[in-house]
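Journal club prep, shared notes

We agreed each person brings one worked example of a sequence with its structure written out as tokens. Mine is Actin-interacting protein 1. I'm keeping it raw so we can talk through how to read the token line rather than staring at a rendered picture. Sequence first:
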Amino acid sequence: MSYSNKYTFAALPRTARGTPLVLGGDPKGRTFLYTNGNSVIIRDIENPAISDVYTEHSCQVNVAKYSPSGFYIASGDASGKVRIWDTVNKEHILKNEFQPIGGPIKDIAWSADNQRMVVVGEGRERFGHVFMSETGTSVGEISGQSKPINSVDFKPTRPFRIVTASEDNTLAVFEGPPFKFKCTKQEHTRFAQAVRYSPDGSLFASGGFDGKIFLFDGATSELKGEIGSPAHKGGVYGIAWSPDGKQLLSCSGDKTCAIWDVETMQRVTLFNMGTAVENQQVSCLWQGKHLLSVSLSGAINYLDVDNPDTPKQVLMGHNKPITCLALHPDRKTVYTASHDGCVTAWNVETGEGRHFLGQGHGNQVNGMRASKDGSLLTCGIDDSLRKAVPAAEGDVPTYTDVAIALGSQPRAMDHIIEDDTTIVATVKELAVIIGGSKQSTVPLSFEPTCVAIDPKSRHVAVGGADNKIHIYTLDVRTLTPSIELTHLGAVTDVKYSPDSKYLVASDGNRKVILYSTDEYKPAHNKEWGFHTARVNCVAFSPDSTRIASGSLDTSIIIWSAAQPAKHTIIKNAHPQSQITGLAWIDDETVVSVGQDANTRIWNVPKA
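Then the structure, token by token:
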């Protein structure tokens, strides 16, 4: 059986409060770059649903930048490594790897001829280094600043210059090659956070946490003046030049972005991005006709000059690991939730993601199930079960004010659509909830990990950390224990087949076991043990003939109930990231989520 990755609903940039983020732009103007965890994400600027993810770094990547030719990307990580890889091949073949500094890299700049590169950050012995991109040979020293360097840029025209912005509040200018320290600029009174040359190299601008933006002569480094007075009420996190060099875009912690006229040094447009803390703007990019900014929440905003208070488009999704996944009954919408409590509804056809509104859990969501009308039930580690309902057809659901207290931390839940019955497994008990109120509870002597209900037989399977599956019978609102099935490892997930003939279970001992529900005996004598680490999740296809399993080993395996000896392995389905949830959209389409915050849709045709 062959398979293919149809779409990737990409993760958003990983943001941190008080930390600027660097967006990279393709010199041809087609794509933009950002980082999340150990991934570099490349997105199409016109159609952001088209994305590509590079995951070859072994630790967190902080910055990625295109070479001026557009053929290579350089990405720098928290250990001080720089990887230079090609953008032409789908495999992104590695060209070079260097270790220019011994600590986190914060920014990278290329010379206009693609030959030299400068990286800056928090090294132990130096805060920056200039080297040849082909050989790694040093072409100068980055010295003269006493604290980590946050930003760097290369003058795009000869004679070459490098300018750096540091946490010692200064800018430093270097002349070369070979590059030698020339002077420092001490206009900023707080951390200098961003520095960028204009496209023709005649000017450079700097922004700092003092809210100020200064303009300097590109050749002599003389101060030309201050833009605005000051430019922003909060720290300036990023600046970007317009392609013609006549305007400057800035973004700030005061929750605004602004366009400035370089000649008059006055503000032309102010974009108000909101009032909440997550509306702080931590990065910006001016790419052709597109003006992008990134909010502290990770959302990417396409700014609209004609309507500054409403972005043209906002890209939403997750920037923290995804913990669970649910499917709308119409199978056209996928719901995902991450460990920061953010819940997103994805349109499977367009790839558009929208965040749920209202007061959610505010922290990790451990279980969710959709009900018939498109509303969603979620349980989180605030020890409550909450409901989000769509206001109108096709609307993104909004959390209601009603929260059902569960009394202890929920581990998993399942829901019968037909009679609105929900069973939540908490660390202390199983709770039966019907129509919004708790009907009964059963105390537990084991720690539950997962729960599944078969609406036909009204059997409830509860997997436990005690290596057992506990089967209960549900009689309207009471649960009665019936049988136990033993595994060799902690049971991690259980699912009944849509036709009620099977129960599939996965465990910490790398096994996937299929039971027939007649007597709860194994359905065949084949052992499904091809995963190389703990299996986290399982899911049945709508026609009950195939099972998908996702594991800590980063792979997905598709099994056949009718032909137990046949299976398809999707290796590195989420590279360097465990699979945390699976669902079938139809009999040949699987959706997977992982710790890398990406949601992927796979085409797995039948043999």
